[in-house]
Description:
With 320 residues, the protein is mainly beta. The protein has helices at 60-67, 112-124, 212-220, 259-273; strands at residues 2-8, 14-19, 34-41, 44-50, 77-83, 96-102, 134-138, 141-149, 152-156, 162-163, 167-171, 174-182, 186-196, 231-238, 241-248, 253-255, 279-282, 288-296, 299-308, 310-317. A hairpin with a 5-residue loop joins strand 17 and strand 18.
Amino acid sequence: MHVSSDGIGSSAHLDAILVFMSEHQPAQKALQSRAFAKLCGAGNDFIVLDGADGLSDPSPAQIRRLCDRRYGIGADGLMVLRPGQGHGPGVGALAFELDFYNADGSGGMLCGNGARCALERARMLGLAPPGTTLRFRFGDAEYSGAALSPGQARLDLDPGYRMDEPITIAVGDLLMSGRFVDVGSLHFVIDIGAIRDSAGRPVYSRIDDVPVATLGKAVRSHAAFGPSGVNANFTELRGGRLYVRTFERGVEDETLACGTGSVSSALARWHDTLLKPPLVVVARSGDELVIDWRLVAGAVEDLSLSGPAFMSFEGRFSAF
Length: 320
């Protein structure tokens, strides 16, 4: 990969041309030169393409290449952002529309931090006035949210989430108790204190000691969750903050943050301990996300995910 640049400005944006060298892989159909922006949401990073350029979405193979951290730009996922149909003021207007793909080229699920990064990118493109709550399409569903200020964004989630009663699964010689949660993406949330050996003794006292890459992989594809599997979230409540580590489907590894996983973990902890919102979640990156909601007659309303979202650089890729 060749990178050329005129330098990094005060805004830390990189004006670069990335050329993917075809000799490193079998020949693929060429893709026209295309602009991209790289955004980061609490450690989750995404390639964002401007769908207004009229080009088609990359293929799954091209997405895998672009998201590869050695041969591509590198990211947890890729998004194509387009101005919304009926963009502008008025009831039912969509500010923008978003197609989301995981690093492995798959899609079909909500990505909380991806949606927040899209809100920040939409602000930069003039599609989302700062501080204004607006509606947008993410995949096949509509959501609302706001670019709160440069570098901060909030996603409003559907309060009609699904949460099952706790179950216990076996992973090797360990037993893990947790809750299945669906907030638009599927999660199994585990308090690290509920990871026990065959004698019933807790195995881990700190979340940093949990081997998420191996245990998370086993949970992600566990038979209890069917062929589609789940994202695996490991949590520890410490000092009034909820620490969360996630093994993500579609990335197939631990990521530095997970937005829907943070929301699922906060809701599970609230159900089990009656902690009051807002809850501060500390991601693996060290960044903090705020999960908030209101209780109305015992039901969750105004469920939201807020935190950092910023552009780290932009450039062009020219060919595969």
